[in-house]
Amino acid sequence: MTPPLSPSIEDVDIYKKNLLDGSTLLLGSTKELLGICDQALDIDPVYPNEKIIIGDWLDNKDFYTNIIGDGILNFSDSLCHELLDMAEKNCNNFIVRAFNYKMPIMRIAQYFPTEESFKSAPQVIYQNKEYSFFKWTFGQIRP
Predict the structure, then answer these.
(1) Does 49 fall in a domain?
(2) Which of 50, 64, 81, 118 is the most exposed place for a label (fewest CB within 10 A)?
(3) Are the C-beta atoms of 23 and 36 separated by less than 8 Å?
(4) Extended strands (E) in the chain
(5) Mind listing the pLDDT tens digit for each residue in 106-130?
(6) CATH code at 42?
(7) Of 100, 89, 28, nearest to 64 (Cα)?
(8) In angstroms, rounded to a whole number, what is the distance separating the alpha carbons of residues 4 and 137?
């Protein structure tokens, strides 16, 4: 994939600048983001990597300081809100890049949330025509 679908170096820097010190879980297996996470969770990764754990995002019960994802909120309204609920229970810091509209090369993206779409308001840390970066800081104290 090419930008804007695949994160650019500048996009990866946005993630890096907003991570809290501690562990980071990537939901999915976005190749460009594997270098900034400790582990990745993906039900069907397209390539092997020692950081990738096979599993469903919603089944995550482990606590991470940061949970990040790229395009993970664009599948459906219900999955978007279920992921936010999972993250609220299992991290201090949730950072995602979401696309603002369906681009011709997108196959399965069907939902395009805005800041107003969420029950708990995110901080918008970057936005352009194609995508937005959303960040939630839950502030839980966990080991």
Answers:
(1) yes
(2) 50
(3) no
(4) 24-27, 39-42, 52-54, 64-70, 91-99, 123-127, 131-137
(5) 888 999 999 999 989 999 999 999 9
(6) 3.40.50.150
(7) 89
(8) 25
User: Is residue 42 in some structural domain?
Assistant: yes
For residue 45, what are the contacts with CB-CB under 8 A and spacing of at least 6?
29, 52, 54
The torsion angles phi and psi of 105, rounded to 5 degrees, stand at -85, -5
Q: Is residue 143 part of a domain?
A: no
Domain that residue 122 falls in = 9-137
Asked if 116 contacts 100 with a C-beta cutoff of 8 angstroms, the reply is no
What is the residue-averaged pLDDT of the chain? 93
Can you spell out the DSSP letters for 21-47? Answer: SS-EEEES--GGGGGG-SEEEESS-SS
Token look-up 């939901």 returns 27
- Could you read off the pLDDT of 28-43 as tens digits, one per residue? 999 999 999 999 999 9
Looking at the 3D structure of the chain, how many domains does it have?
Answer: 1
State how beta strands 131-137 and 24-27 pair: unpaired
